[in-house]
Amino acid sequence: MVAMSGGIDSTVAAMMLHEEGYEVVGITMKTWDYANSGGSKKETGCCSLDSINDARQVAVDMGFHHFIVDIRSEFGDYVIDNFVDEYIAGRTPNPCVLCNTHIKWSALLKRADAMDCEFIATGHYAVINELNGRKFVSKGKDAKKDQSYVLWGLSQECLERSRFPLGGYTKDEIRKMAYDYGYEELSKKAESYEICFVPDNDYRGFLKRRVDGLVEKVAGGNFVDTEGNVLGKHEGYPFFTIGQRKGLGKAFGEPMFVTEIKAESNTVVLGRIEDLMRNGMIVGGINLMKYETLPEDIEAVTQVRYNDPGTLSKLNSLGDKVTVEFYAPVKGIAPGQSAVFFEGDDVIGGGVIHSSMNFSEN
């Protein structure tokens, strides 16, 4: 069973597996009604009718079955509610990771079982490896497209049955492959980096439309500096993220960044760039891949966001959480975002950032 969004990556993945002799069943998941988002732009991305039709057409051309599965209720209740709740709590969520971990793979496995499909496949640029009987994700060949970061939450059961056909290829190679298959238009298809239920990339507008009375409830909070001195008023803490510099609504005479969000008092703390630097954090919701238990004092390169190159760090278990001590300061650690631990190209595991801190230099 191949998850087909209608984009080039998942489409070529299905083509490759079909060519290799697998009995392919294409499945396109309807996760969201664009009309419900209240966005101002034309419907695009994986939930659009055009994308669904593109996926179906390839299946027809290649001669394999294709199904559309409605998972809007499963998706909306969990992913969107979490997205809203996290911002209301003053954190910065990562809905795509949550969707992969708790919705899409669960939905795929459920439908795969119903259709007697042994494996599921997606168009992610990543590789699955095995060590001592444990499956884990490793980085794909294309460093610019590598998506191992967003897959840290997959369970051993999911990894056992998953295939990532594109992991050993670059994006340019995949585009050429689509062209060679006879899909010139597909080979030039642009990529979407938007959250599917926030298609205009305006999460603030989405929150305002989604939560009745939110604007009135949070208006008039204080900007304060790192010493607690009031610098001015803002429109509400949910509309800010850690590290934000632009869009603060007023000038301060020098570059100022959001360094902390205090939801309970509707306070946004501003500071200079050096005030964003931290050398440690606590990560919860841990999922380990490469090891069954975390080796003591293991070193790892830890990424704190998708496009973060990562920083060498020391990991230690702290109950059901992990403490991360960086060997160099890291900028803009945002509670709610994913932290992923790498050993070389291999994903040790990951979790959700609980809080940041500065460990004593002593």
Description:
The chain is an alpha+beta fold. It folds into 3 domains: 2-123 and 165-187, 3-Layer(aba) Sandwich (Rossmann fold), CATH 3.40.50.620; 217-271, SH3 type barrels, CATH 2.30.30.280; 278-357, Translation factors (Elongation Factor Tu (Ef-tu), domain 3). It has helices spanning 8-19, 49-62, 72-88, 95-114, 156-160, 171-180, 184-187, 203-210, 214-218; strands at 2-3, 25-30, 65-70, 120-121, 126-131, 134-139, 162-163, 221-224, 230-234, 257-262, 267-271, 277-288, 298-303, 311-318, 321-331, 338-343, 346-357. The protein has a 6-stranded antiparallel β-barrel with strand order 12-15-14-13-16-17. Strands 9-8-11-10 form a 4-stranded mixed β-sheet, with no helix packed on it. A hairpin with a 4-residue loop joins strand 10 (257-262) and strand 11. Helix 1 (8-19) runs parallel beside helix 2 and helix 1 packs across helix 6 (171-180). The longest helix is centred in the N-terminal third of the chain and has 20 residues, at 95-114. The termini are far apart.
Topology:
Elements: E1 2-3, H1 8-19, E2 25-30, H2 49-62, E3 65-70, H3 72-88, H4 95-114, E4 120-121, E5 126-131, E6 134-139, H5 156-160, E7 162-163, H6 171-180, H7 184-187, H8 203-210, H9 214-218, E8 221-224, E9 230-234, E10 257-262, E11 267-271, E12 277-288, E13 298-303, E14 311-318, E15 321-331, E16 338-343, E17 346-357
Helix pairs in contact: 1-2, 1-6, 3-4
